[in-house]
Amino acid sequence: MVKKLKLNSAQRKALRQKEEQNLKDLEQRVQEYDLASEKPSQFKDLPLSSHLIKGLNESAFVSLTQIQKESIPSLLKGEDVLAAAKTGSGKTLAFLIPILEKLYRSKWAEFDGLGALIISPTRELAIQIYEVLIKIGKHFQLSAGLVIGGKDYKFEKERISKINILIGTPGRILQHFDQAVGLELSNLQMLVLDEADRCLDMGFKKTLDDIVSNLPEGRQTLLFSATQSKSVSDLARLSLTNPKYIGIKDTDSASTATPESLTQSYITIPLDEKLDTLYSFIKTHLKSKIIVFFSSSKQVHFAHETIRKLQPGVSLMKLHGRQKQTARTETVYKFSKAQHVCLFATDVVARGLDFPAIDWVIQVDAPEDVDTYIHRVGRAARFGKSGKSLLMLTPSEEEAFLKRLESKKIEVNKLNIKQSKKKSIRSQLQALCFQDPELKYLGQKAFISYIKSIYIQKDKDVFKFEELPTEEYAKSLGLPGAPKIKLKGLGKNNGSKELKNASRQLLALAKANDDGEIEETEKKIRTKYDKMFERQNQNVLSEHYLNITNNTNSSTIVKDMNGDDNNSNEDYDKNDSDEEFMSVKRKDHDLQEDGLPDLVAPTSKRSEKRALSKKASLNDKGNPKKLVFDDQGKPHQIYEFEDEEDFRNAGDASDQKKEFIAKEAEDMSNRDVDDKLLAKQKKQEKKRKRQEAERRAIVSDYSDEESPVEPYLSGVPDDQIDHDLAIKLLEDFDRDSYDEEGDNEEPPSKKPKWFQNDKIGGKYNTDEPEILELEEPETLEDLESLTARLLNQ
């Protein structure tokens, strides 16, 4: 390890003087740089510091692009710039280089506060800008920070006060402006809006206005995007002073928006055949890197899950704004590194992201305007490389949208589909939705989100809501019918784009009472545990799951522009109940007849404590009552008392008493007979088990030894001996020791068994048993003599 040399005061002073002289020379080069005469081709031709040139060379940035040639010299001089250039032209370096140079020339340090602020409309684009800044600026003594949604806010809050260059999304930046204590904004030098037209869009209007109101007016402002206009209102909001326009000729011109190396084409196809065409395209382009754009995240999720189950033969990914930030970052990284892959995405991927070697950009749903189209197709053919794009238009969208593209001088070629290459997956989707209810639910949500996205579009000449084939489209998704949709308050008069991009929290706060106050349920602070326990259908994580699945058979799209909900679900409930062959008789039981008091809200802390106390409530209401239900579903208490009036109607008390005693006596006598019979059976069973045990003992003890009957049967042929009968005779030999009926419950006699001592003369001999020595009988007379002798013995 090389030790760092320690410098003395004279050496340090010399280094400081050298550094100051370099800064003066750099500042002089910047001021003397002639924008008209100079024509730089590489970064080293520009008046840049040696630290930046070294970082650019190490990152393989050598040559200048057109937008960099025109914008960097003006930005180094401190001018405000409004720049537009086609996608993939190097706009990120065009504003990062002036930021590093300005802070370096200003001798910016840690305690000077925030020097530059870069705002990006999407998280992925902000991450990409941060990674490029770290590469080219690693030789500067400056700090950079990235603040986006989905990350640890407390971690960012603790370190944001020491950041010199801050990159983030509008929402998280405004949150730090409001809550971070040590964030110093008074010295801000530069404000950059990447993809400025999207940042200035209606979705970020209020947030961006709040951010700009906290910034000093003397800053330098930079706006970069692929599509921009000279909107006076937008420029006034950002306080631009004499901005320089780069790449913007007029408001309606976009001739340089798309790269020349991009091959653009489109096909005309019915709405219900789009998924079939997409699947067929993927199957025929397995060796390509593809991005597929949908209009909503629900469609992305459904298409990814269904086509993944069909196994097209290529890796599939998805990316949309409703994913967790970790999943989004991981997907971007994997997709960038992959070679053959297909990514299903929404417009969150459409702007600024630099994915290498994209072969195809497929737009399944038509973009909302031409600017969105330009940004989508700009993911391919970046930095002069070749690429292709394909746009799917329905017959109702074709004529009007092509006119919009022609007005922007964008030419697209029409393609014809080879029917031999086309494959239908409608039957497979129907089978998948039938087998998996969750997949069916995703299909219903995808259908609803697409219908709503068409309904809220501003350009009604392109997106004709009335001509949508809803039934055919629902069947193409594998659904049995078009789900019911309620379109409330969605229209051009209400600001469709504002409503689409509005914050959910702001929409929730907008729900107020007639008095203008927020309801109690909205004012209550809900923790993450409250949200967890309020979830329903946790396998699909949506509280609308049952509402949609119950109305699957309905194919009516309900338009409710005034907010009146005149279409209730009563008709659907009645239809469902008629088809059921099993129903529960018992639903809600009225228990007020049992004397339960009405529930009244407590009026004081003492009454509230008493109501919540189980012991106190039992003192007032008595013991708890248990109920049982009969066959008709009516509740009854376990112990019920007869009323006094019913008792008198039954007759005299003495007669009822005699009748009750006689009934109980008869019942007891019947039970006594049963008990005696049961006891007798138990005794017999016990005796049988004891005898069985003794028999098993005899067999086991003499299984490998001489049989106990062999001494008495010596001389008898083996084939004439019945061993089982002999054993039974010997078992009966000791039967006198047991009671005949088996009623004796005492344990068996402790006298020695026959196999322990021989029995002679009816008595048990405790001495050694007598041994009889006999000759083997040879004739029948000898056998009869032996038998007689044994019997007499």
From TrEMBL:
State the compartments where it is located: Nucleus, Nucleolus
Task: Output the lineage of the source organism.
Answer: Eukaryota, Fungi, Dikarya, Ascomycota, Saccharomycotina
* Protein keywords: ATP-binding, Coiled coil, Helicase, Hydrolase, Nucleotide-binding, Nucleus, Ribosome biogenesis, RNA-binding, rRNA processing
Q: Does the keyword Nucleotide-binding apply?
A: yes
Matching CDD domains: DEADc_DDX10, SF2_C_DEAD
**Which catalysed reactions does the entry list for this protein?**
ATP + H2O = ADP + phosphate + H(+)
Bias category Basic and acidic residues: which stretches? 582-592, 627-639, 654-678, 720-736
Domain Helicase C-terminal per the UniProt entry, residue ranges: 274-429
* SUPFAM superfamilies given in the database record: P-loop containing nucleoside triphosphate hydrolases
What is this enzyme's class at the first EC digit?
A: hydrolase
**Protein name stated in the entry:** ATP-dependent RNA helicase
Q: Which residues form the DEAD-box RNA helicase Q domain?
A: 41-69
**Disordered: annotated span:** 556-769
